[in-house]
UniProtKB/TrEMBL annotation:
Pfam families in alphabetical order: DUF5753 (PF19054), HTH_31 (PF13560)
Species annotation: Nocardiopsis mwathae
UniProt xrefs under PROSITE patterns: HTH_CROC1
SUPFAM superfamilies: lambda repressor-like DNA-binding domains (SSF47413)
Stored CDD domains: HTH_XRE (cd00093)
Superkingdom classification of source: Bacteria
Protein name from the UniProt record: Transcriptional regulator with XRE-family HTH domain
Residues covered by the HTH cro/C1-type domain: 16-69
GO MF annotations, alphabetized: DNA binding
InterPro entries attached to this UniProt entry: Cro/C1-type_HTH, DUF5753, Lambda_DNA-bd_dom_sf
């Protein structure tokens, strides 16, 4: 019986075979450069085996394709493993050079822990099975590691997102530790808008602004079941101005970090 073709990976297999042929290399020669067996490479090219990210990385190096196969692998992997409404947004996140985000009631999704995400999803999506929840937890927790290494991440968050208890105090302490660790590593910038606070520019809801090297910026506005992508230049400029106004309302970076450290201590 012939192995069954996996339709999701046909495009990847075709691209690998095309690039290998263009480089004038046999499957055996690729094996000597990557350690990927000729039989495995044949299965990848014929889409009868799903490649792993490590395969894409090794093939990129062997074929001198400068990350093209990893990017293709990520795009296809998204379409297989994440919900429909996340697919295009996940691609945009990975290609963004700057992401600015404001959140009112929850810790931003890119920096949530798995326990925090799981608890929040179980409360909000009681109709979904445990398997569906776990799939989406895995998809969300992997988002940060899929971003560009040089991406600039700036978050403005209402204090309430850190003081409302999602699950229990242990989950919240671990969540604050993750945020503080990412700050200490220089991966993210976080400013907190303290309570009590009069009405401020962000009361209309969460938003994100994404900038890219090779295309116009977009804004993302959250709704009940996902995010709306906005590419109108005028509206994106308005969202960028709104984010700047929120930064002005928030504590400085250093004061925000000290506040988060105090909140972590309060959780025991």
């Amino acid at each position: 019986m012939n192995p069954e073709v996996n339709p999701a990976w046909v495009r990847f297999g075709v691209e690998v075979k095309k690039l290998r042929s263009k480089a004038g290399l046999t499957q055996v020669q690729i094996h000597s450069r990557t350690g990927i067996s000729a039989s495995m490479l044949s299965a990848i090219e014929n889409a009868t085996r799903a490649p792993k990210r490590n395969h894409a990385e090794l093939l990129d190096k062997a074929l001198s394709t400068h990350g093209a196969l990893v990017r293709l692998w990520l795009d296809i992997n998204d379409s297989v493993n994440v919900p429909d409404w996340w697919r295009n947004i996940g691609v945009m996140e990975r290609n963004a050079v700057e992401i600015r985000e404001y959140q009112m009631t929850f810790v931003p999704g890119l920096i949530q822990t798995d326990a925090y995400i799981r608890t929040a999803m179980r409360q909000a999506r009681r109709w979904d099975s445990a398997d569906v929840i776990e799939r989406d937890v895995e998809a969300r927790t992997s988002r940060l590691d899929k971003l560009r290494e040089d991406v600039f991440l700036w978050f403005v968050v209402d204090e309430y997102a850190f003081t409302r208890v999602v699950g229990d105090e242990q989950i919240m302490r671990a969540q604050l530790s993750r945020v503080l660790d990412l700050i200490a590593q220089g991966r993210i910038q976080v400013q907190v808008i303290t309570q009590p606070r009069p009405l401020h520019p962000g009361m209309s809801g969460p938003l994100r602004v994404l900038d890219f090297q090779d295309r116009s910026p977009v804004a993302l506005v959250e709704h009940l079941v996902g995010e709306e992508v906005i590419d109108s230049p005028q509206t994106v400029r308005q969202c960028r101005s709104l984010f700047g106004a929120l930064q002005a309302e928030a504590l400085s970076l250093s004061d925000s970090a000290r506040m988060l450290e105090k909140l972590r201590e309060d959780y025991g």
